[in-house]
Amino acid sequence: MRIGLMGFGKTGKAVAEELLKDSGSRLEWVLKSSTEHSGNYASEVLGHGSRQGLIYSIQEVDLATFFKKHPVDIMVDFSSADSVHCYASAAHAKVRIVSAISNYSPYQLDVLKHASRSTAILYSPNITIGINFLLEASKFLKTIIPHADIEIVEEHFATKKDISGTAVRIADQLGLNEREHIHSVRVGGIVGKHEIIFGLENQTIRLVHESISRNAFGQGALYAAKWLSSKTAGLYTMEEVLGINAGQRRTALKSS
Questions:
Q1: Partner of 11 at 20 to 30 A CA spacing, among 90, 126, 166, 223?
Q2: Could you tell me if 166 and 192 lie in one domain?
Q3: Which GO terms describe its biological process (predicted)?
Q4: 118 and 29, same structural domain?
Q5: What pLDDT score was predicted for residue 126?
């Protein structure tokens, strides 16, 4: 499976590490916003002996022809929300896309949905396997105790500015106002931790997921990419990858 990667920051590098370790795939190229490391191989930058993942700067390529000149089966995107404007060119070249962007604007989400008419796209704000099970568990728990108070605490590294897209997704799925029920903590080098607290009169129930390493995102992306490799054009979710209420989730995302 030939894979292209968008984004080569801290998370992008961790994702590249996982792709390089997988014997069933090959990292063909990395596309990034800056010119740093342009012309080098991601594998060499990361200290691996093989020559995989030639790095290109988006400033130096013609996106209209890039995906045809450098064919891959799957593109994994860990860059920024603005990269969605590359999706039409990728879709035209029949490249399937795994999008792990935390926050899209309504307009950007429409662009993503439009591209999914031409190729298979899997979109998940948090692509780790565990967080998706956490979300489903919290929804099930709410059906059992609908009268409970619910609060969401999300913790991330000190330099993260935006509210967690995963926390927003959890709030939306639980029918909560994100401004009132999400509490953000920014300290040190926390990769990502989400806690959902259900408060009852004499007890609390806490569901917690924590990413110990950014490599968890790479493992989730690789798992999703292998699943997506056989899919036809359309918009898919991580819930479908994991077999969790697939039909309901896909219908909800398409109609949103």
A1: 90
A2: yes
A3: diaminopimelate biosynthetic process; lysine biosynthetic process via diaminopimelate
A4: yes
A5: 84
DSSP 72: -
160 is catalytic: yes
Q: Which of 160, 193, 226, 231 is catalytic?
A: 160
**Amino acid sitting at position 244:** I
When divided into structural domains, the chain yields a total of 2
Q: What share of the chain is helix, strand, coil (3-state, %, to 5)?
A: 40, 25, 35
Q: Same domain for 26 and 118?
A: yes
Coil, helix or strand at residue 213: coil
Do 90 and 10 belong to one domain?
A: yes
How many angstroms separate the CA atoms of 163 and 225, rounded?
26
Question: Could you tell me where the beta strands, DSSP code E, fall in 116-203?
Answer: 120-123, 149-156, 182-186, 192-199
Q: Which amino acid is at 149?
A: D
Residues 103, 13, single domain; the answer is yes
Q: Given this model, what pLDDT does residue 149 score?
A: 98
108-117 per-residue burial string, b: 16 or more CB within 10 A, e: under 16: bbebbbebbe
What's the pLDDT score for residue 243? 81
Q: How many CB atoms lie within 10 A of CB 205?
A: 15
CATH classification at residue 144: 3.30.360.10
Decide if 69 is catalytic.
no
Residue partners of 183: CB distance under 8 A and separation at least 6: 151, 152, 153, 154
In what helix (H) or strand (E) does residue 89 lie, and over which residues does it extend?
helix 87-92
Determine the structural domain holding residue 27 and report its residue range: 2-127+215-255
> Per the residue annotation, which of 13, 142, 156, 194 is the catalytic one?
156
Query: Quick one: 103 and 178 in the same domain?
Result: no
